[in-house]
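Re-running the complex after MR caught last week's input typo. The corrected sequence lines follow. Everything else is unchanged.
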Amino acid sequence: MSVLFAIVLLPLIAALLPRLVQSMGRSTVAIVTALPVLLALLLLLGTAPSVLVDGELLQAAVPWLPQAGLMLAFRLDGLAWLFALLILGIGLLVIVYGHYYLEKSDSGGRFFSLLLLFMAAMLGVVCSDNLLLLVVFWELTSISSFLLIGYWSGQAAARKGARMALTLTGAGGLALLAGVILIGQTVGSYDLGTVLASGDLIRSHALYPLMLVLVLLGVFTKSAQFPFHFWLPHAMSAPTPVSAYLHSATMVKAGVFLLARFYPALAGTDLWFVLVSSIGLVTLLLGAWMALFRHDLKGLLAYSTISHLGLITLLFGLSTRLAAVAAVFHVINHATFKASLFMAAGIIDHETGTRDIRKLGGLRRYLPHTMALATVASMAMAGVPLLNGFLSKEMFFAEAADTPLYGSLNWLVPTLATIAGMLSVAYSLRFVHDVFFGPVPAALVAHAPHEPRRLMRVPVEVLVLLCLAVGVFPAVVVGPLLAAAATATLGGELPEYSLAIWHGLNVPFLMSLLALTGGVAIYVWRAPLFALQRRWPRPHAPAIFEQAVQALVAVAGRFVRFIDNGALQRYVSWLMLPVALIMLAAMASRPDWLGEHALTPVDGLSILATIVAVLAALATVVLRRQRLVALLMISVVGLIVSLAFLRLSAPDLALTQLSVEVVTVLLLMLAMYFLPSRGVIESTWWDRSRDLFLSLSIGVGVGLLALFAMTHPGATISTFFIDNSIPGGGGANVVNVILVDFRGFDTLGEITVLAIAAAGIYALLENLGLCLPIYDPEGRPWAKDRSPLVLQMISRAVLPIALLVAMYILVRGHNMPGGGFIAGLITAVALVLQYVASGVHWVHARVPHNYHPLVAFGVLLAGLTGLASLLLGYPFLTSTFEYIYWPIVGKFELASAMLFDLGVYITVVGATLLILARLGKLSVVEQEEGN
Amino acid sequence: MISHLIMAPVLLPLFAGLLILLEVRQRLWLRRATGLIATALLLPIAFLLWQQAAAGDITVYRLGNWQPPFGIVLVLDQLSAMMLLITALLALPVYLHACRGDDQPGANFHSLFQFQLLGINGAFLTGDLFNLFVFFEVLLIASYALLMHGQGPQRAKAGLHYVILNLAGSSLFLFGLGLLYAATGTLNMADVGRVICAGELVSPLLLQVSGALLLVVFALKAALLPLSFWLPGAYSAASAPVAALFAIMTKVGLYAIWRMWPLLYGLQDSPLHGMVSPWLWGLALATIAFAALGVLSAQRLAVLASWLVLVSVGTLMAALTASTPAAWAAGFYYMIHSTFAAAALFLLVGLISAHRGVLADQIEEGSGLSPLLGLLFVVLAVMLVGLPPLSGFIGKLVLLQAVPEAAFWIVLLLASLLLLIAFSRAGSTVFWRHQAGGKPATLPLAAAAPLTFLLLLCVAMVVLAAPMMNVAASTAEQLANAQGYIDAVLGAAEVMP
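Corrected-run output:
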């Protein structure tokens, strides 16, 4: 059914157009906006015979996300048709009206684009045949209305009103989403038809109350029902065409539409009755009462809208079939008279520059046509006979008088309904009388307002005419439409009702009469009421909302900062806390720490070394504020560890540890040059206890677990490495073969890390200027002779020997302890020594010192070695080796892995020197400046 | 003949980064061109690999021609292929954005960017836990250097926190690996699973401790509360393209947990089974809630974006912990969306800052901004808050459906509300509240192109929601099949002679 898609999607696709043709003039924009709407309206009217007369249900569906039950499914039944008519029909009138309403300075393109987007969203809501799709469009109405309300974004009131509306309706939308998913999971389908047919299943489900409340939250926020009503009056900061459209005919009606839509699925329980009818009743009264006292024309209309929405909600809540029909009828009537009243208010505002009732009066002299139109529409709002409002109100009174459900409080509903009716008459009267009659305020005389352009009045005339037509010939004008919509709402047979103007002298008529006379009386003697109202506290919703949001933000900020105070110490303790807990849990399980593997016998030397290591570790902690001493203590620990490696037959590790230790300490010394030599006591007693707890539990845990792991040996993959080192890797040094062959990929990664670190540190220190102290903390000047002669001489002599040793270690690495990593570190240490002994300038004058390419070349060499195997059809990093006989040297092994190792060597040298040269250079620059 | 294509996502950025380092004269155009070619080439490669994986087979590449579990393997399954594709799709626009000036001033941005990609791709591909450690190091060092790129005291402070915490994490990682090796005798991911299933564990206790330690490390990378404190500072201090690239970084940590879940944490025979879920679940929800409050309290747009990253971390962790294929599929969809959307937001914040001068990204009244920026902001806000009809809503919808837990629903929906309040507040302040007069500076379309590309990806996720969820579902199914993974990695196929 492509017509259905066309009706919904036309405004959506067209929404882009106004913005695009903005530069082509205001009229073009308006025409481009109106045409697709007109087309959609015609398409809709074209379906009238089948939907309204034959009662057909038009459906169209395309899968969107069927796994989640989300379908692009639309339906057009009587209810959807009615709402679509309101949306498109009033929408078209609003476009015409808006074209004349907007100032030249307003961006018409943006306005009409948003309006079309909103219209598409509304059409989507009412035509959805899938619950999830309905939620999609539902939220879209919130978003687009936010942008429309905030259209005049320069005004604070508009921004706040928009945000308040979005927050409330958005919250409702989230609740609705949850409710809809619950319903869908209960029914097993999100298809609207299926859901509507599963009313009994839903109502008997244990989660029914939750589903109902969630859906109602969506309804009540959208339709501005108490206690969520307060956003609507402040949405009046929107341009009047927006108010006329959103806040009379469409958006706020989305809520009551949902009540109608879900009526067969959710209504009919006591909970529904209690919640919906009581909220509706309270809103009806509250809105009518508040409307009476508004001085702002649009504010009066806004509260009146709230009140009328309450009336419709109450009708749905009454849960009788006739009440539902009355509710649908009132939806139509309210839309017509309220939209025209908003437009009239807009005209008054447009022509006089004010909407304040106190500053208006006697306008019948200047705006006779507008007066006539507004008067008729107001009478419809008040429920005067021969106008449409009278008919639905009559039906409402009949239902209210008939409600047996409140038990002994049965008299309450009709009484309150009549009071609400009186208030409604009173504020309608005020709208007309205070504005159009009475004396003309002096300011207005000077302003000399005049009737607006003819075409700006046309939309109002059309609507008012409809009020009259429905009021006089209800059965002819709306009979079929109402019947079709009500049938779709009820999901079954229609009750008996008659749309006649005169039903005889009955209770509803008496209530109407009472309301009319009472309303006039209230208006005439309104002064004491106004005085009474003035004494009541009048909370200003945006201010309260703003305060609430500010408070929420402040509380959130305080809470976040309380937890996350920005201290690294706390962050690290949060990281260590779970580790400590894991250790404590492991210890609490009391495993057999000592396994079957016997312990190595201890000797005096080991004990001594251990004691030294422990003491040095303790000293590091105790002396941590004397940074140089602490650093030396750490290096003692490192030294002992390398000795331990040696003792435990791991010469490779020992060599590596040793050279890493030297380079690290050297670099740290350089860095410490820029730091104060003493730390400051900043930690509190609590911090230190926390740290003690963490380090003790983790330290003890790690020790015990290591003991456990080493005394509980199991089968590991290491045997494979030992077995395959010579036959597969061509090397006798298993550690080296693992590094360059079995797990060469890891090594490639690690040397890349080195390269990155070097490049990163280079970038980090580039252009960094640090102020150097000329004196140490004791006030002694630093020594001027930076290069002691003895060190210079020795270091220069050491260099060639060290390089030779490095080469040797590199070459033999594959079969004996050694390898590229260690050789690289030895070379680096020898070169670092030159820097230390002779200074940066001396070295750089003799050695090429851009180490970037060196680092890159090293990694590249290793990488290319790995790449070579690809050419032979083997995986990356597959190694090969060959034994060659040289005349004098003898049997000699050439392994591709050696080339890889050379890459490692070069990278290590390059990276170390790159970092060092940078650090060294920092001081050079500064010292020269200091001199 | 074996295909080496699987190596390309690792080797391409490696060699590109090295070549840029080799280029001594520091010609900017040459660096940019090299980087651009390498980054752009990742895209077709990742796509081909993804296509290959989508067929359902797991590809195993044995480095150095050593058979697993002894040698290192790269493993391409649907999950790793998906992650590669996300990374490639993210990297290109981010790099293009950076080439409009954010790569200046400061040295080595271009090679560091490539090394960062190397680390990310390697972490997604490797089938070996120690190798994962190596790639985590590559990632960490590269990201630290990138984070500090351009310098400034704020960056130095945040960078210090970042690097110290992560180095502490690295030592925990190593210790955990040592214990895992002691418990299982292996470091190959699949082999760990096999040893557990075959009952060859040395000690359940060691496995529990090592698994828990590794989880702490992964959670630190993923930035799960309370290990998340480093993130807002670090991400908000970084330059826009770097922060945008970082959008994938937390996902690396999540990926690691996800990868090890069927093999270690969620495995029926594992001594860890059922031990970590309650913790992760609670922390995931706490992360969502806390991060949502952080979003609300943010005074700067970049900080807001950083907290948003944390919201998605919590959400994803909840999906992961729910541990059903449906929840995982939903999680994967949400992960893709949140990565692209968060990255786009960081890029947008960069543009906004550039336009507002001194005010930068403070959420305060300023001068008028180009309507195009406003439009992009609205679209992104809708996406990130999870409002219809964009990808965030679809992600939220499938998550709510797949994880029907009251606590999760309440936390997620309330967080959405807080996000809505925060975004409407920030947006109306930055875009609507400004001094009158002065036409806003126009935004060159090219400047917005990279982030628009990311937005279009998210829009495509909406249009193609159904096929994407199918892919996500089949990815989740394959991931959950631990035996299939173990057989594929350790199985048949002899080593080449």
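None of the earlier attempt is carried over here. The first strand of chain B starts at residue 59 and ends at 62. The mean pLDDT of chain B is 91.
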